[in-house]
Amino acid sequence: MDLYRKVRLACAEGMSQREAARHFGISRDSVRKMLAFSIPPGYRRQSPIRRPKLDGFTGVIDQWLSEDRDRPRKQRHTAKRIFERLRDEHGFAGGYTIIKDYVREHGRRHREMFVPLEHAPGHAQADFGEAVVMIGGVEQKAHFFALDLPHSDACFIRAYPAATAEAWMDGHVHAFVFFGAVPLSILYDNDRCLVAKIEPDGTRRRARLFSEMLSHYVIRDRYGRPGKGNDKGGVEGLVGYSRRNFMVPIPNFPTWDTFNDWLEEQCRKRQADKLRGHTEMIGERLQRDLEAMAPLPAAPFEACDQASGRVSSLALVRYKTNDYSVPVAYGHRDVWIRAYVDRIVIGCAAEVIARHQRSYDREDMVFDPIHYLPLIEKKINAFEQAAPLAGWELPKAFATLQRLMEARLLKTGRREYVQVLRLLESFEMEEVHAAVRTALQMGAISFDAVKHLVLCRVERRPPRLDLDVYPYLPRAKVATTSPASYLCLTAGAST
Questions:
Q1: Could you say which DSSP state residue 255 is in?
Q2: Which of helix, strand or coil describes residue 13?
Q3: More exposed terminus of the chain, fewer Cβ within 10 Å: N or C?
Q4: What distance lies between CA 342 and its chain's CA centroid?
Q5: How far is C-alpha 266 from the chain's CA centre?
Q6: Which residues of the chain have pLDDT under 70?
Q7: Does the residue 263 lie in any domain?
Q8: Within this chain, do residues 152 and 273 fall inside the same structural domain, yes or no?
């Protein structure tokens, strides 16, 4: 536009069109057009595009593309495949570029149009997104639950190591607590964690855990069309917004809990935003959502998968490819399993017998060393090669105690050391560790002495170790002095 102005100004001041063309490095036709119009008129095609090599084949291309609409997305014609078929089956002699341009233009003309929607208060949309994060110094993929209230654009985001059914339910539980209310309905896609099967008539057969959650909170579920993400455009937009604004740069947090606490804070801060086309802040419009939503039930839904299993001869219970240990006393017994997003709880009858941090690896073995100590005490020769004890990080005082016990009593000392470790079955590590340190200071290298010191610490009474009961206490040796020893003193006096 600047060149346009300069040419018109130069000619108005007396420069000829020929001189202007030479001076500005353009053609005389361009100069003439610039003088004829005060602003660039732009290019306007007067006649339809003519493609001599393609025009005879457009009907075939349109038919193929029309038939593709009813076929799976990954089995539809590409521009390259259309070119190959036209060349091989219909004798097309043109190039690939005109085929590609025509297919692109065809797609643009037939792109779906949408009606602007107005969302009533009290309803929600939910979905999962993915992003790369750093948790505990390890780069990994985060699957984040997103719940959007389209009327107010208020949101809730929570991240998980995997998008499991338990994560879906846990996301709902935390979202409802965050808002302090339950939406009247929620729009979902057809995720396999939620929908077990779509019937021929379009009805959904819900997954068990999802159905239980809906019943607990009395929520009406709605679903978008398969493959039509625009049906829940609110939450689809929220997923993209969260990835761009909450996860750039890559989040770096020590734990998942700290990351999720930070995400909740970002969701609260966003309520102060005023979006384009609105005169109210998100938080102000949220009040109408909350007024329409239902109150929370008396107790939250227990978001866990429930399964059953049997303890193996290695005192392990399998859940989704991973094995978790239980006390050896429960070997070969039937147990129940409750899988939460962050932990695994195993029980037998009415008793909880094991708790573990949940592993999202495959074919992993998760041990609690304490579960195996009774068996190791009996089979003491397996102590050095016991896999459950490998990598067990104990305070340094325990290693010192083990060395002294084994040095004095060999195999018996090792068994006594295992008995000391078994105190962890009944007492906290802090109490046992303090007792071990005291025993080392006193030289009481004995299981009985350590046990006595633990009990005294728990009961808050001073320890009283009997030398006859604890023979490994150091004994003071007091020598007797003979009368002859004093002769040196008298001899010195006589001189």
A1: S
A2: coil
A3: C
A4: 10
A5: 17
A6: 1, 42-49, 112-117, 225-232, 465-495
A7: yes
A8: yes
- The DSSP-derived string for 38-58 is SS-------S----TTTGGGH
Please spell the DSSP secondary structure of 142-172, one letter per residue: EEEEEEEETTTTEEEEEEESS--HHHHHHHH
* Full residue range of the structural domain in which residue 337 is found: 305-366
Residues 6+ apart with CB under 8 A from 473: 442, 443, 444, 449, 465, 467
Which of 424, 296, 429 shows the shortest CA–CA distance to 372?
424
Distance CA 47, CA 390 (A): 81
Closest residue by Cα to residue 158 from 171, 149, 168, 176: 171
Phi, psi of 308 (to 5 degrees): -125, 160
- Distance from C-alpha of 89 to C-alpha of 79, rounded to nearest angstrom: 15
Clarify whether residues 168 and 249 are in a common domain. yes
Distance of CA 99 to the CA centre of its chain: 44
Instruction: Calculate the CA 442 to chain-centre distance.
Output: 49
The answer, yes or no, to whether the previous bond of 249 is cis (omega within 30 of 0) is yes
127 and 187 in a single domain? The answer is yes
Distance CA 206, CA 212 (A): 9
Kindly report the backbone phi and psi dihedral angles of residue 409, in degrees, each rounded to the nearest multiple of 5, phi listed first: -125, 5
| Closest by CA position to 152, among listed 179, 116, 188, 114 | 179
As a whole number of angstroms, the distance between CA 454 and CA 441 comes to 14
| Max intra-chain CA distance, the chain | 145
In degrees, to the nearest 5, what angle opens at C-alpha 482 toward C-alphas 481 and 485?
A: 90
H/E stretch holding 187 reads: strand 185-188
Return the pLDDT at 297: 95
Q: Answer whether 248's CB lies under 8 Å from 212's CB.
A: no
What is the distance, to the nearest Å, from the Cα of residue 130 to the centroid of all Cα atoms in its chain? 9
Which residue in this structure is represented by tokens 């089995």? 75
45 within domain boundaries: no
Rounded-to-integer distance, Cα 189 and Cα 411, Å? 63
What confidence score (pLDDT) does residue 44 get?
Answer: 62
Give me the amino acid identity at 23.
H
Task: Tell me which residue has tokens 């002699």.
Answer: 93
Q: What pLDDT was estimated at residue 495?
A: 47
Both structure tokens of 246: 């909450």
Cα–Cα distance between 144 and 147 in angstroms, integer? 10
123 vs 467: CA distance, rounded Å: 76
For 151, phi then psi, to 5°, come to -65, -45
